[in-house]
Amino acid sequence: LAVRVGLVGAGFMAKAHTLAYRAAPLFWPDEVPALELVRVVDVDRVQAERAADRLGWREATTDLAAVAQADDVDLVDVVTPNDAHEEAAVAAAAHGKALVCEKPLAHDLPSARRIAAAVDAAGILAAVSFVYRQWPAVQLARRLLDEGAVGRPRRFGAHFLHDYAADEALPLTWRFQRERAGAGSVGDLGSHLIDLAHHLVGPIVAVHALTATYVPERPGATAAPERLPVNVDDAADVLLRFACGATGHLRTGWAARGHRTQWGFDVLGDEGALRFSWERPALLELHRARDGRGGFEAIAVGPEHIGDEALWPVAGQGSGWGDAFVLTIARLLRRLNGVDVEVPSVTDGLRANEVLAAVLASAEAGAWVPVTTGPPLR
Ligand SMILES: NC(=O)c1ccc[n+]([C@@H]2O[C@H](COP(=O)([O-])OP(=O)(O)OC[C@H]3O[C@@H](n4cnc5c(N)ncnc54)[C@H](O)[C@@H]3O)[C@@H](O)[C@H]2O)c1
Description:
The protein is α/β, with parallel strands linked by helices. It has helices at 12-27, 45-55, 65-68, 85-94, 109-122, 136-146, 178-181, 185-188, 190-200, 303-306, 321-336, 346-365, and strands at 3-8, 35-41, 59-61, 75-78, 98-101, 126-128, 153-162, 204-212, 217-219, 227-229, 235-242, 247-253, 261-269, 272-277, 283-288, 297-300, 369-370.
């Protein structure tokens, strides 16, 4: 039986997610169910129609109910600005649809809690699009950490830097508005890093954050001459304390000159270390003190490391950003089909929003702030 998909939001991510729906059945023909790309909804009709036409969705609409409540939709995929995730996700959950929601789960913690509660009450399968933790080298890092390859983690560091917003002429979009995005670079990019930190080292229990806004006003999207206020961060530095006793830091920024897209992490343990850079996405670097050699060994990730997660049977051909979405959506689709694979859950999304809320409170107070964690969901 085909899984019938409805898409909420027809912008940038609509393309990445559509790519994933098209590619997933090619890579996992026995595990990914047949798919029908039924309907795309956007508040902007032109945008919805253009997306349907170009990306190959059967219909376009401006009526959310025609996706979130429709009898001919089984899976709802939410790729709107952050403040609009809740309306679509809660409606989809209430109507028993499976759900994919982009990250961060919501623009603020109360909204994330409401989404998580709705998903929990409905008992549906739901995933949050933390695509980087799905990455083969990151999965390998997780496996090595579980096996104790670096001993006990002492320090975690991660960064996610872009340069596109260094351009002061870049128009103001929802990403620069706290009411819609919730936070700036620390929410947009930092939510991925928080998820990586949780995935690799465990829960973050306290944070101390410093944020900066370099471009306080930006032109509007129209030709009008006025400049509009930016009320989110362009950059953030965050110190972390983990439940396991490790410490760490995050560095985010989208106005970081020289950094097109650069993210990576390292984990320093008492018996070794490992590190990863997105600029060399097929390599994971490992140091084991017991080997008696200084420095790092570069492990080229291949099918022998990652089992069924490989897109191609030939190691080292290289994969890219779009593939991260293929891996994530394919895992959800395989789970829907009863295959036992892990997907980043709404609880993972909620945990990241809890840390983000502490980060914003800390940046405002200039002090350490504990992370308030709700009870685990079902
Ligand atoms: N996982 C990742 O790596 C990744 C990368 C980029 C963006 N994102 C996330 O994806 C989401 C969308 O980002 P984007 O870059 O595609 O944004 P975008 O601005 O390109 O597109 C958003 C679309 O949603 C539409 N929209 C706005 N409000 C709506 C509503 N209430 N109902 C229906 N449609 C609505 C807009 O008209 C627009 O077409 C955000 O949550 C963002 O954080 C995730």
